[in-house]
Amino acid sequence: MSLVREKTRAHQPSSSKPSTQPDPPPQNVTSSPASLSSSIQQPPKPTPQPRPPLRSTKSQLRTCFSTELQPENNTTIQQTPPKPAPRAINERRALANQGGEKSNGSKSASGAEIVDAKGLPKPGVRMQTDPDVHRRTPTTGRQMETFAVQGQAVRLDCDTDQEDTEDTFTYSWTKDNHTIKSSPRLQLQDSSLWILNTVLSDSGHYVCTSTNGSESTETSIFLSVEKGQCPRAPETKLALEGSNIILACTEDPTEILGKLLHMEWLKDCKPTGMEGSKISLHVSMSSMGNYTCMVIFGYDGQNYTVSSTIELEVVNRGPIETPKVIYPRNHTVHTKPGVKTKLECSVFIGSEKNDIEESQVYWMVDKNFTVQYPQLRENLTIETREDNQIYGTSTLFIAKVLPEFFEVPFECTILSPRGMDMGVVWLKHEKPYTIQATLTILLALIAVVVVNIVLFVFFRTDIILCYRQLCGKSRTGQTKVYNAYVCSCHGNTPGSTAEDLALRILPDVLEQKHDLKLFIHGRDDAENVADMAGVLSQSKAVLLILPGSRSVNQQEEESAIPLNPGQETLDVSHCSELYSVIAQSSVPVIVVEDGENADYSLLPESIQSIIQRDRVLRWSPAVQPNGRFWKHLRYHIT
């Protein structure tokens, strides 16, 4: 049991002074506990040593939070080799295995700081790293408070410096300013006062005075006796989830009054089956609770019980955010010797304010720091994004690419107490033909596209006809019966080329060779379909054969062209009625000129108005069956 002491020298008036010098508070963490009385004179705080720069050896960083870090006086930021983690970082690492003690600003034996779930120090709270050392919670001023259960025994210890001197100490105890004398229920053992079979009236203010002739020390304790089975916990021990800790009983077995009989542990006043002065725990969230050490001893023929309680609070460790190099991981940059370039490195630093100060981002060239190369300069920019995620961008400026920079690793490293990560960039010689090859490929692609466009324009009809033939598709559709309605009203001269074209040549080429179906006016009028409007609605297009002017010899030859047996001359009397039906229908009209200088005046204006230029074809007897005339004609009627 640790107690607060108050020393008084014989030749000096009584004055209060601290027994130990406090540890310097950590940076950016409030270290003065609010629970301490303002009447106690605090010693002057030592000036904290300046933290060495983490990223620069030639200049200090002006700012490190949400702004770009710039060197003072525009000097170059030169990176230094990684330094050992600060002392506070190592102490926070120790918490993972040893837990801590919440004591409102009091120090643990090691002076390590309590941290929260994210690894940050709690203001005014210290961590106990020695599991064998426990302290009681102060109440007011320098007064200590301890707890006991009615019917059990309790031991009050007087704090002395007897181990530091050979002088003999004498001890005297008072309760509420009344001197305590030894009795069967009150036993004085060296510097301890044992109260056996405590009662509620034993609660009060106890003062022990230890004197060695030259000075005296007073220990003030407030005892609170309560009903129940287990006493209250005067202290709280913090432990991280997943860590291994040791709980030690505050009652030293070697200082027990009489004979030690048994030691056992309770959790929340329920037996745990664990015995001994110390127990080991693998901490989980279910480990949280009050642990009571019960010591049974025999004295003067009777058995007594003395107990003490420790409250264990478990802190959720949470996910550990390790630093990470986002880009580059393993990247290659092509460049030329002697040119100016830069390399960029994007890193994730963490999500805590201290992560910036505790982290280093630096570049190395072939395992050498950049300070060895005057051509290199580093710059680090810090950015805080949503959810307080802190990212950094380290830019390595290369004033001149040296030959030795090629084929060696440029390593971007981030180092912090939570881990490290590294990315690599390689510089390679830029191939001289790279741009030329790229342009050649690009020009070749453009040429291929242009050639394809030209070919499609010139052979559009052939391509479409080939596609329709291969895929079995036709624009006629399932609802059309005829590919074309053929009419040659003005080619009424028997044996003329217009009549021959309508009644003989078109059927031979289109019907016999290409398996198309035609309705020819003058040939099919006597068949089942007599209604011209109905026939037109079942046809994809109308072929109007318009005669043109020819030479005398051609006209004489035309008169000698015989018709096939059974074919008749075209009935001109139906032309007027036919033109009217064609004009009223929506069937496309295709004009086939039989020779040059076709006379369009023979057609009524209603027909002339619906004729399109791209649907006018010129027939010549010299046209081959596979010529362009037939291809264009098939294109329009299929």
Report the CATH C-level class of the domain at 475-637. Alpha Beta
Coarse shape: elongated
Cα-based radius of gyration, to the nearest Å: 54 Å
The CATH topology label of the domain at 475-637 is Rossmann fold
N-to-C CA distance: 108 Å
- Structural class of the secondary elements? alpha+beta
Strand percentage: 25-35%
Mean pLDDT: 73
Q: Can you count the beta strands?
A: 33
The CATH architecture designation of the domain at 475-637 is 3-Layer(aba) Sandwich
Q: Segments where pLDDT lies below 50 for 5+ residues? A: 1-142, 551-570
List the quaternary state of the chains.
Answer: single chain
- What is the number of helical segments per DSSP (H or I, 4+ residues)? 10
Tell me the major beta sheet: 6 strands, mixed
DSSP helix fraction: 10-25%
Domain TIR: 480-637
Biased composition (Pro residues): 43-53
Domain Ig-like: 131-224, 231-311, 323-414
Biased composition (Low complexity): 31-42
Write a structural description:
One of its GO terms (molecular function) is hydrolase activity. This is Interleukin-1 receptor type 1-like. InterPro entries: Ig-like_dom (IPR007110), Ig-like_dom_sf (IPR036179), Ig-like_fold (IPR013783), Ig_I-set (IPR013098), Ig_sub (IPR003599), Ig_sub2 (IPR003598), IL-1_rcpt_fam (IPR015621), TIR_dom (IPR000157). There is one protein chain. With about 650 residues, the chain is an alpha+beta fold. The protein has 10 helices and 33 strands. The strands form 8 sheets. Strands 1, 5, 7, 8, 11 and 12 form a 6-stranded mixed β-sheet that branches. A 6-stranded mixed β-sheet has the order 2-13-19-18-15-16, with helices on one face. The protein has a 5-stranded mixed β-sheet with strand order 21-28-27-23-24. The radius of gyration is 54 Å and the shape is elongated. It starts with a strand and ends with a helix.
